[in-house]
Amino acid sequence: MKKKIIHYRENKDIRIDKYLMTELTEISRTVIQNLINEKYILVNNLPIKSNYKLKKNDEINIIFRPEEELDIKKQDIPLNIVYEDEDLLIVNKEKGMVVHPAVGHRDGTLVNALMFRSEKLSSINGIIRPGIVHRIDKDTSGLLIVAKNDKTHVKLSEMISKKEIKRKYYALVHGVIKHDYGTIDAPIARNPRERKEMAIIDDGKCAITHFRVIKRYNKYTLIECELETGRTHQIRVHMKYIKFPLVGDLVYGPKKTLDTSGQMLHSKSLEFMHPISGKAIHINTELPKYFEEILDILR
Known about the structure:
Layout: E1 3-7, E2 14-15, H1 16-23, H2 29-37, E3 41-43, E4 46-47, E5 53-54, E6 59-63, E7 81-84, E8 88-93, H3 110-117, E9 141-147, H4 150-161, E10 166-174, E11 181-185, E12 188-190, E13 198-200, E14 208-217, E15 220-227, H5 234-241, E16 265-273, E17 280-284, H6 289-298
Parallel strand pairs: 9-16
Antiparallel strand pairs: 1-6, 2-5, 3-4, 3-6, 7-8, 8-9, 10-15, 10-16, 11-14, 12-13, 14-15, 16-17
């Protein structure tokens, strides 16, 4: 990993995150604070908090995570844009597309395509996540909001936090759910036994998913899920928790499943008030071809 050492020579005390914004212009304050919290930034070889005030002759050690070193390429990749204005756009992401570059996925991502298409993208989430306000998994298809400027990004993040953006998904699960409606309220956190997975953990973050049955099949159920919170893998983990795992989910579901190349989960609709204009926006998509083909088989 790349490292950088900065010796602070000023006579005035200043917050380290504010100071580093002027030294690391390619990285946002949020990313800097994350690096501090994850102990990638040390002062005099000791971990500090983002509100630490630098003193003359302090030595700042910065370790860049591998993904921060990525050279993000602009790539001419077709995107299905279902809404766009000066402040934001909404893309209907295809199944199999990674949202942003990371180690192992340096190109072919949604961000690579967005950077080719638009010069205007918010910078709050750093150089590898320009415009990305919220994410969906590689094998989850459907709607995703992209911010074109930092003001819009901040407002959208606040709206998500305040549950002012309605997000509905369609999912196909194993088993026949008898109840027409249900709510799953179970906290989610990183699985301590498997760091790449999430799990229901008592002291995890609050996670709430509402669902209703759309159609029952022999051994399967098509449901609509509405997210009240937006935790990583939330629907996948919650449906596993109530013993109706997603079809095709080899991480949280059974190994013996329908051949779907990933979980059957589609971000179908978004409803919110535009953060700048105040205009009501309601986008609803058709189920993608891969989803309909599986449903045709079940019919």
